[in-house]
Amino acid sequence: xxxxxxxxxxxxxxxxxxxxxxxxxxxxxxxxxxxxxxxxxxxxxxxxxxxxxxxxxxxxxxxxxxxxxxxxxxxxxxxxxxxxxxxxxxxxxxxxxxxxxxxxxxxxxxxxxxxxxxxxxxxxxxxxxxxxxxxxxxxxxxxxxxxxxxxxxxxxxxxxxxxxxxxxxxxxxxxxxxxxxxxxxxxxxxxxxxxxxxxxxxxxxxxxxxxxxxxxxxxxxxxxxxxxxxxxxxxxxxxxxxxxxxxxxxxxxxxxxxxxxxxxxxxxxxxxxxxxxxxxxxxxxxxxxxxxxxxxxxxxxxxxxxxxxxxxxxxxxxxxxxxxxxxxxxxxxxxxxxxxxxxxxxxxxxxxxxxxxxxxxxxxxxxxxxxxxxxxxxxxxxxxxxxxxxxxxxxxxxxxxxxxxxxxxxxxxxxxxxxxxxxxxxxxxxxxxxxxxxxxxxxxxxxxxxxxxxxxxxxxxxxxxxxxxxxxxxxxxxxxxxxxxxxxxxxxxxxxxxxxxxxxxxxxxxxxxxxxxxxxxxxxxxxxxxxxxxxxxxxxxxxxxxxxxxxxxxxxxxxxxxxxxxxxxxxxxxxxxxxxxxxxxxxxxxxxxxxxxxxxxxxxxxxxxxxxxxxxxxxxx
Length: 621
Ligand SMILES: *[C@@H]1O[C@H](CO)[C@@H](O)[C@H](O)[C@H]1NC(C)=O
Ligand SMILES: *[C@@H]1O[C@H](CO)[C@@H](O)[C@H](O)[C@H]1NC(C)=O
Ligand SMILES: *[C@@H]1O[C@H](CO)[C@@H](O)[C@H](O)[C@H]1NC(C)=O
Ligand SMILES: *[C@@H]1O[C@H](CO)[C@@H](O)[C@H](O)[C@H]1NC(C)=O
Known about the structure:
Zn(2+) 2 binds at residues 219, 258, 370, 404. Belongs to the acid sphingomyelinase family. Helix content is 38%, strand content 11%. It is α/β, with parallel strands linked by helices. The protein folds into two domains: 1-112 and 582-619, no CATH class; 142-156 and 193-555, 4-Layer Sandwich (Purple Acid Phosphatase, chain A, domain 2). The strands form two sheets. The chain has a six-stranded mixed β-sheet with strand order 3-2-1-10-11-12. A six-stranded mixed β-sheet has the order 4-5-6-7-9-8. Helix 2 (22-32) runs antiparallel to helix 19. It is globular and about 75 Å long. Mean pLDDT is 92; it is low at 15-19 and 566-584. One 2-acetamido-2-deoxy-beta-D-glucopyranose (NAG) is lined by residues 163, 181-182. Residues 270-271, 345-346 line the site of one 2-acetamido-2-deoxy-beta-D-glucopyranose.
């Protein structure tokens, strides 16, 4: 590290005194950043900037963001002031030419992810030769509700502009002048996050489902990521904990989402040299969740970075809740070192320990988490290591449950990714659609669970349709479809009523999608609950099916493209515009850099930029 810093100082002095100025270096690096090699050059220039201090770094990026009109001025300023110092810290701590830098360039959209760093996850015991089998005795299933990505906007304002220029609307923004063209109704809009009353309506509907318990796969806070702070997030977390507590009549097993912290996504590793910490998130949730999980588990939330494990009351099912944001590419704290850190904050180790405890006790287990380990935004390394764990404990894990994508979908794990078929399919991840109407009609899932195997026998998706005339006054929650009815009907040879909707079932569903395009397009419609549905054909279809078969992210067929963030939906719909499509990161720093490097600058923009940056950097240097 010191070596590279020294080179940097030398280069910097050279560039300030002798050759062209840093301003020219930065502008030319941005202009010329078109591929992976030139992205590293850009990071070299940005590293020089970061060495001048956070303030100059932020001001420079804000200036570029505003000049290129990547997002509204206040959004540029807010996002960069929140997240810029983390990136500057990263750049001062790593080599601009190393693998961590390549990973940063992957977030910007200019490098493919580097190959997986080989690492063998240690297990306390070898897999049993005669694993315990879990057989259904045909008892009536019990119900579990799964809801996710509620993204409640406590500043939602009825009557505010729906058609705004920011990542989320239906708020009073200071720079929004002129008459309102589309006023927000009280219950929500597709351009906005969730009003409190809509979340309450959903919880009241959940309460009627006679559930044994619910799982909530995270993201409480809205996506106004340029404004969030610790006080707001803490307040939002506490409010929703209280609402769940008041309105639901059975336990809730929650997880930590990437919006549960401020700045958004920013969970530092425990190896970080920065004094900043997200301990306040774990303290808040440990306290808020103690009513549903026992004191041992509440202690784990506090001391194990938000993860916990608990046996659901009255069952033989161990629920293992993992904070997967330490495997998330948009967590900019994960780029602060060149040192190989296979298991940030011990999340993988905790999963192994708890799965071993379940195996030893003859229990079944569910893994629940916010970010699925399978997407384009999951690090290939940690996804690969997690997949090793899934494969080791495949007889114990009955199912996995995730959120984060905002879409109604699923993902399959295999014992052999080179030979994907119904026999090698051995783990299933259920991904819940979002409550926030920003990504489609608000929805949640109700599972029928076999009480012997804890496998899913059926899933009903319930939605509330924003186009329904009564939605704004009295939203209703109706069954959109049953997974067994809809997909059981397309599986070759049918699916026996006694069999769960396991990984083999879902593999056969994907096989049916290949040949039965009507069924595939119906699935595409379900993903966003009938909103903004575009036909997905050709590459889109191939990539989507590939993604469904890729619990191990290195197999997901996502290729990085300049200017297009790596979320699957972006690839599918080719929506490259800001805001309403960038579901989870919420137009963060990765988006801004992605846009910055993918635009062709006009002569006018170039000269404005040169002028502005000369003022920012020239003064300081
Ligand atoms: C939304 O705003 C854009 C730009 O301000 C405008 O062109 C468009 O007509 C508006 N849409 C509606 C439905 O008012
Ligand atoms: C909490 O539950 C776990 C799992 O069932 C158990 O091992 C632990 O002893 C419990 N803790 C307390 C304080 O009851
Ligand atoms: C970080 O967390 C891991 C896993 O819990 C632990 O083993 C390690 O000692 C911690 N490191 C520091 C510096 O706290
Ligand atoms: C930028 O310019 C290049 C070369 O002239 C062209 O191939 C590319 O399509 C342009 N990109 C955009 C986003 O306009």
